[in-house]
Design a protein that fits this description.
156 residues, mainly alpha, 69% helix, elongated
């Protein structure tokens, strides 16, 4: 008998909640460090001068991340390939929104850098969460292959 056992996949809700909490903590740290570095987070909105507050960073972290991961967690039951698609699409959206939202705004340099880093910080959190959701798929082809490989005793 092998000394390795497959660890049970965590519940999707736990994966999503953990990813959201980690992302919020990291983005708030970036936001407050940006403030210490001189970021004002002020910009001009159609309604006039405005400022990005910490609560906005929290909301803009939680809503898309939780929604996206939830869609993947539900959809993967019927379309296992959604995890692979999300692993490609999510980072593109996370980085793309820097170019679509952050850079076009008239933020000062430190604000632009800090807010862009908030977008970048989502990439590893999202990728790790998606990989955990993919590992939790019953009958996932890659896991079946690895299990069969372990049982056959072949090396490689």
């Amino acid at each position: 008998m092998s000394g390795t056992t497959a660890s049970p996949a965590p519940a999707p809700a736990r994966v999503i909640a953990t990813a959201v909490v980690v992302a919020v903590v990291v983005n708030l740290a970036i936001f407050f460090l940006g403030g210490l570095a001189g970021a004002s987070y002020a910009f001009t909105s159609p309604a006039g001068p405005a400022t990005v507050a910490a609560v906005v960073v929290v909301a803009f972290t939680i809503i898309p991340l939780a929604l996206g991961l939830t869609v993947v967690a539900v959809t993967r039951r019927w379309w296992p390939g959604v995890v692979t698609v999300a692993l490609i699409v999510a980072p593109i959206l996370e980085i793309g929104t820097i170019f679509a939202l952050t850079l076009p705004a008239d933020f000062d340099g430190p604000s632009t850098i800090a807010l862009a880093l908030c977008h970048v910080a989502l990439v590893p959190v999202t990728v790790l969460a998606l990989r955990r959701l993919g590992a939790g798929q019953l009958g996932a082809p890659a896991e079946k292959t690895r299990a069969a490989h372990r049982q056959s005793g072949t090396r490689g």
